[in-house]
Amino acid sequence: MFSRDRKWFLVIGIICTMIMTSISAWQPQTANAASTSASKVDAVLLVDVSNSMNTSDPGKIGNEAMKMFIDMLSTQNDKVGIVAYTDVVQREKALLNITSEADKQELKSFIDGLNRGAYTDTSVGVKEAIRILKDGKTAGHAPMIVMLADGNNDLNKTTGRTESQSDQDMVKAVAEAKNSGVPIYTIGLNANGKLNKNKLADIAQQTGGKSFITSSADDLPNILSEIFASNLKLKVVPLQSITANGNYQDVTVTVPNDSVLEANISIMSSKPVDARLIDPSGNTKPIPSSDVLLSKSKSYSLIKLLKPVAGDWKLQVKGVQQDQIDINLVFNYDLELKLDAPPAKAYKKGDAVQIRSYLTSNNQQLQDQELYANMNAVLKVKDLDSGTTNEVPLKNEGDAFTGSYTIPDEHDYELTVRAEEKSFYRETQPVTISAKAAAGSSTNNGTTTAPAAPAEKSKLLPLILLGLGLIVLLIAAYFIWKAVKKANRGFVGQIVLEIRDENTGEKTYPQYKKLNTFRGKFNLHQLLQLAPEFAGTDKVVFTPANQDRIIVRSTPEITIEKSGRAVDTGSGLELKNGDRLTIPLASVDKTILLEFISVNS
User: Fold this and answer.
1) Phi, psi dihedral angles at 250 (to 5 degrees)
2) Strand, coil or helix: what is 345?
3) Which of 66, 132, 184, 460 satisfies CB 3.0 to 4.6 Å to 145 for a cystine?
């Protein structure tokens, strides 16, 4: 049944592509239709946990940075993974969809459990971070990697791996990140002054990220605020730093409009700090409460306002006398900027291209004049033949930005609109037009739109294609739904693991591995925390089944025993509550004992 569905899905997908391509020839085009949502992220936190970090980062500032990053994320549907590396991947966590504070706490507990080990190969960590992003990415999320390291390698000479090999792998990994649109933000940890800042800066520069250096947790709010602002098209709003006098001191926090999803207020102090919050109407807001979240660590406090009302909030901060308290603010918006694509026509030198751009939320145009009031916009024009770029100011109409551009030469041009105010900015996806002789086309996001057909030939065709397309899309939607549902199906229960040393007969303590964090499938190597000695166990794959059961599959070189007998798992073996498997690994003289426990049985 599955193979038949796949064939139908492929055939229908091809038909849909052909039909939608035809429809695009006459359908009005809007730039940025598939742009990345700036309010959600898929992030991998990449941290060097080699022994060299004992001197580069003795206070584990890297751990504090990762935890603060997690606290700054939205409470809904951002995704975070973690990779801890030495010269191998020591531990990792696949992208976790954050739906509650408990999910954030799970990630922070994982960070607290990281240990350090020998040797360092930075390329190993970067390659794995990119792989995790590719495996768990979500359409519409902004991908990013935040790397915390000193940038130095310390290779294990017994493996025969050379610095040249590591460098080659790093070049490939950085190129893959760049080509995939994944910026890498590097935070150089430099307590001992041996930071390889050039290497870290180069990684960031090539991938469109930014590079930072710190030896103190005091720098983290500024660094992480800047990373958030850069990746989510926001601006850091500086608030005043205060010298505590032992009493409550007022700091004004201005929420500019009702489109703010969250306001993140970070408070950094080396001493205990107490805070109170008063909303624009003068009412005291408890910290924490349903719409005011509080996160604390040994280095920072973070107050998150959820859907705050517009206006001046009053933050009252009380610290130890003479203590310096730094406060930062970063907003998050549910906003995109779209550009109406110019008509599909043959342009020539001297033609005026009319420009109209506007803000949207949930794909609906916003007409909130208060939101537009403090914004400025420009049309950025890049001459694709000469490489020159210039900007044309646009008029703020109160609910849109308008203007025109006169084509100066018979060249190809890329048009982008950028609109900004003091706390955020947005850019449209580029639209390309051509004024070359006989070109006669404009492109939107790289897709060429042919000139419109004569009216007498095109009146009926769009209706026929649209009707046919809708029918086919309904059929395709069913198969897409089935495929997505299967790929994202979750697990229930847990697997209990024990490892027996066949030379001594000793067994490890049982390890209880909850399965509810996995989606679609996982392998045994992941449950074993990717320990290098168990590398072959990545061929043992688990998928969810009906009635709270799971299916195990493996390749022939892996022997799996049930009730003392070897079983064939090539086509899938169903495990129900209480089933036990034995997996002998002759290469390391160890045996894995596995039991599946279903929570609903």
Assistant:
1) -85, 135
2) coil
3) 184
